[in-house]
Structure formats: C-alpha cells, structure tokens
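Trying the structure run again after the queue cleared.
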Amino acid sequence: MSDTFAIIGAGPAGLATAKNFSQLGLQVELLEREDDVGGNWYFGRPASSVCHSTHMISSKRMSQLADFPMPKDYPPYPHHRQVLTYLRDYARHFGLYHVTRFQTEVRRIELAVQNGSGEHWQVTLENGEVRTYAGVVIASGHHHDPLWPDLPGNFSGQVLHARDYKTPEQIRGQRVLVIGGGNSGCDLAVEAAQHGSTSLLSLRRGYHFLPKFLFGGPLDAGGELFDRWRVPIWLQQQITAWFVKIAVGRPERYGLPKPDHRLFETHPIVNSQLLYAVGHGHVQVRPAIENITGNRVRFVDGREEDIDVILCATGYKTTFPFLDPSLLMADDGSPRLFLNAFHPQHDRLFVAGLIQPNGSIWPLVDWQSRLMAKFVRAQESNPQKADWFRQLKSRGHDDLGGGIRYDRSPRHSLEVEFFAYRRRLKTLVSSFG
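Done. Tokens:
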C-alpha cells in the first residue's frame, strides 16, 4: 500500500497543505487539473472565478502565509496577478512543483481499505488511471458550482453568473442588472457603472458595508488588536459599528436598504466604492424582482426597467462531484465535519478550506493542515494522542461562530469567526506538541 497522501487541487489550500505535510515528513502528491498552480487565482482558467479587476478583499498582512510574507512592494490589497505570482513563488520556495501532477483531473474518490492497519483511499483519474493513497485531502475549493436564482418570467437578454464574468467587454454599453448583495455583487455593480450604460443592483435585504481602509490602514488589521486584547465579540460589534457609522455613515442614508441584522451576523461586505457609486447615482438600488417579460424587469416596488444583461452574484453550491456527498455534507447543506475539516469516522479523509471566514481563508487553511499533519503523525507514533483527537472529532460539527449568531441561510452554512477559529486550531496543534 502507498504511504503517499493525495491532495486535490493546487490552489492556496492545496499548496499550504502540501507544504505542511511535507515538513512533517509525510509523502504527498498534488493533483491539479490545470497546467500550473494558483487555483481560483489563475485568471482565465476554468478553475478560476476571478475577473480582470479582482483584488483581495482581505489585506496582504492578514492574508499572507505565516512563513512566506508577501513582497513589501505589494499594495495593502493586491491585484489577482500579484496574488498568483505570490502563490507560484510559494510553490517554488517549498519545492511543491516537484510533487505536483498537472493536467490531472480527479473523477472519483472511494474508500479502498479500512481495517486494523488503517485506511487507504482509491482515486480514479479522468484518464481512467486508478491510484491508491494513504489518505486524501480535498483542497479543491467551493466556488465552482454556481447557484442560480429563480428568475420569475422569461428574460430575452443575456444571463451570466458572476463566475463567468471576466472582462468589461461582456457588458460594455449594456443596461446591467446585478442580483445579489455580497462582495462579488457589489464589485460587479460598480464595474457595470464604469463600463455599462446603466447599473442596477437588486437587493432583497439590507447589509452592513465596511470600508477597506479605516484611519489610513486596512480595516481588518483592527481585528488583530481586538483578538490580542481579548475584546468580547459583542463589544467588537458595537465598537466596529460605531467607527463605521462615524467614518462612512448608515447605508440607508445613501439609498440602500436598512440592515435587518447586527454587524457580522451575515458575511461582511467590504467595499469602499459601492456607497460612493450609489451616492452619485452611478448605481441604482432596486428591491427583489417581481416579474420579467422580454427585456422588461418589474420589481416588487412597482418600478420597471429595460435590461440587457443580468449578472447573478448569488453564490455557489457546495458540491464535490468526485465523492459521495453524504460523506461530507448533511441534508441541510452544512458540513458534517469536525471544524469543517475532519471526518468524524475516517482518519485519513480531510477537507481543507471548507469555510467562509470574516477574514482571509489562507492563514486558517495553514493551521488546518498543520493540525491534519500532526494527527496523521500521531496515528503512527503516538496512539494515545491520536485516540484523544479521534474521540474529539467523532462528535462532528462544532460551533464555529465565536459567539456570533449567523443568519440561518445556506450562504452562511460555512461561516466561521476568523479569530476564534484560529485560536481553536492553534490550541489543538499545540496539544500535539
């Protein structure tokens, strides 16, 4: 039987996992369907959902991997080209190109052996090749299966998902309606205002909008101070809301719906341009759609607009086409995994990056994979410690909100509070010694 672990996907999660496993002496093989590393940040490839103007939402200070800082000449919020360069430099620095099989797509993952001597997993590739591994880490991301809205009526124009929008030429001079108020939807509404003839943003509810910069620095750096000072989450909500109210103002004063929830109870919208665009009339805000006839869209408030392109920024379904979905996901769409990463029963099946934090996902994936590697090593050299963690993970899903009561919607089934989740991972890693 093989002693090698298969890591599916050579994006940020896969690269960090391969590095951490390798540093603990575990054999790994990265399986990547594209011709180079980068995953979602490999612009223009089928695996990527970024568009030409995409920048990071979290700052480089809070996003960079701990043992490989981003270049000093990078701006606080790097462009996707810079992010891709960083990831490829990371792969070269840690020798990950040598353990990667490119243009290798996974068709099926199945349990091959589970007995007293451990478990092994069988991976079937797109070319029909079947390989057996000591374990599998799924690091292929969850932004690949678009979630489409139900459009009432028949639209005669073009309908695109945010994942398929790449360049301004797709909307230039067009009357554009964006559906969805997440970070992608707000970015697309601003993009449509710059390149289309009309930009409308359809929102079913109100959201809190956070600026990328506060007091001259990236907003997310303040979270590090809160964490260091052990400020409780309820007080963080109040302090942040107060600062944003002073610096930016309430969304409804710009013409946006009033939020129906407290700050952080939905995934934060980090955007400094949307409020400006709405305030100047470049982006017009509309409620939910009531009906569509031809290119005529009627909204629930009775207003009607002629639209050429509908951009759906409505998120993604969490799917793993190469694996029995019941292994990882519950019927309600939430992960049935401890810390969203560890299978309750299988000790050699992991998922890296199946989270949606209120911050950068990269440092959390780094700690996830360190913990995975420590657990694997304990299975070989410290059975007592491995049994302790095995019992811990057997309880499955854990509360990852750090005191925040997230909105009960499919969109927030993967939500975690960045600092509370990171503390939990660090504590567990240190418990292995």
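The longest helix spans residues 362-381. Worth checking whether this holds up in the mutant runs.
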